[in-house]
Structure formats: structure tokens, C-alpha cells
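Thread: sanity check for a docking pose with adenosine-5'-triphosphate

Original post by kr_44:
Hi all, I'm comparing my docking run against an independent structure prediction. Below are the sequence and the ligand SMILES. Could someone generate the full complex and paste the C-alpha cells? I mainly care about where the ligand ends up relative to the chain.
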Amino acid sequence: MSLPDIILVTGTDTGVGKTVTTAALAAVLRRRGRTVAVYKPCQSGNADGDSDIAEIVRLAGAMTAEAGVVLQQPLAPVAAAAVDGAELPPLAAHADRILELAQSHDHVLAEGAGGLLVHLDSDGGTLAGLGALLAPAAAFLLVTRPALGTLNHTTLTLEALEHRGLAVLGVVLGSWPASPGTAEHGNRQVLESLPVPLIGAVRASASELSPADFRDQAAAWLNGLPE
Ligand SMILES: Nc1ncnc2c1ncn2[C@@H]1O[C@H](COP(=O)(O)OP(=O)(O)OP(=O)(O)O)[C@@H](O)[C@H]1O
Ligand SMILES: [Mg+2]
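Reply from moderator J.T.:
Ran it for you. Here is the predicted complex with adenosine-5'-triphosphate included:
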């Protein structure tokens, strides 16, 4: 698959490295001379200082970066919105904004909340549903863990995407350890043999690099990224 205009970054779980991977992807695309916007439909945990778009801009450099809605508690969007007394935008509002950003940028990278089927609005809308609204301009990038348990989570998510007829760009290991063990090596081998490409593996501690080193190294981590 060639690189789609809109890349929806999902994960097998929360905390798997979606944000670090999105930053690496943005850095690679910008090095290729492309213009990039990043969009986070629902940002939870603002009261704790969580801001995925701020982290992406810190690592990948200044670019258009927006959240659809910002919620205070570090909870799933529906639960966090209930605490705040906030309304969650409907999926169509996120889709409209992403399409608008896609008019003025070569690529829009949108990072989901948690995994694929987490509810992003009060009607049960999910990142998968957003992908359906944005098809055929969008494809999914699935960020996964290298550790034991990842094969089930990865294949379940890929099956859910396939079942919905949604396009998949590939899989990325969100945090590849400096000293991988037997489980990590074995899992990587299996992930390499899936019907969708393994685009790469972001090194663990990537976010501790200086932004300059992060941008220099990102292309090597995502070495399977198509043109
Ligand atoms: N490759 C990596 N290098 C450095 N730190 C990482 C890496 N992957 C994950 N982390 C760390 O693990 C934590 C979770 O990573 P990250 O925020 O990218 O996950 P996420 O999937 O985006 O989570 P969320 O569902 O909250 O958006 C962060 O503290 C991040 O710094
Ligand atoms: Mg994140």
C-alpha cells in the first residue's frame, strides 16, 4: 500500500507507544518534505498534564497539532467527559476536521484513545467508525507491544479491522527493548509473517532522546514505511 493521506494510529492497548510512534512517523514524513498535521480526537488526563499532541510536537517539531476535545481525568473519553460534564463531539465532527486538515497538509495523523473500539462519543462511535467515515482516504497503523500476550491482542485488532473492511497500512512495535528476550524475538518473527507489513519498531527510551536525535533516528525505526 502507498502512504495514505490520512493515517489513523491505533494500538492494542493504552500506553503501547502510539504517541511516540506518531511522533516518529511525523518526523519521517517531514524529513521527506511532506507537510503533516496531527489530530487527537479525545485527549484525556489534562489535569495530570497529559497532552499527546504537545509530546508529538516536542519530539517531531512544530506543526499543526490539535485535539478535538480535552478532558481532565485520565479515564476513557466517555467516563472522563461525564466527570467534566463535557459533551463529546460526534464522530462526524472529527471526520470533518480531519478532512479539512487534509486539504491543507500532505498527511494527517490521528491518534486514537486507548485501542480501536474505545468509545469516542456517547453514541458508541469508535476510531474504527471514524476510519469508515474517512475511507478510502484513510488507513490504520496498529501500534503493538513486543512482550508476551501481544500476538493475541494484535491479531484480534487486525481481525476487527478486516471484519469492517478497513485498510491497514501495517503494524509498528511501539517500544522495542534494548535487550530483547526470547519472547520479544519470537513475537517479532510472528509479527513479520502477518498478512500486513511490520513497518518497524521504535526503540525503547526514544522519547528520552534529544528531539534532534529522535528526528535523525526515526527513519531507521520505521524502515518499512512506504513512499
Ligand atoms: N519507544 C518508546 N520510547 C520511550 N518511551 C516510550 C516508548 N514507547 C512508550 N513509551 C513511554 O510509555 C508511555 C506510554 O507511551 P505512549 O504515550 O506513546 O503510549 P500511548 O499508546 O500513546 O498511550 P495513550 O493511550 O495514553 O495515548 C509514555 O510514558 C512513553 O514515554
Ligand atoms: Mg498517546
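The pocket of magnesium ion (ligand 2) is lined by residues 18-19, 52, 111 (CB under 6 Å). Hope that helps with the comparison, let us know if your pose agrees.
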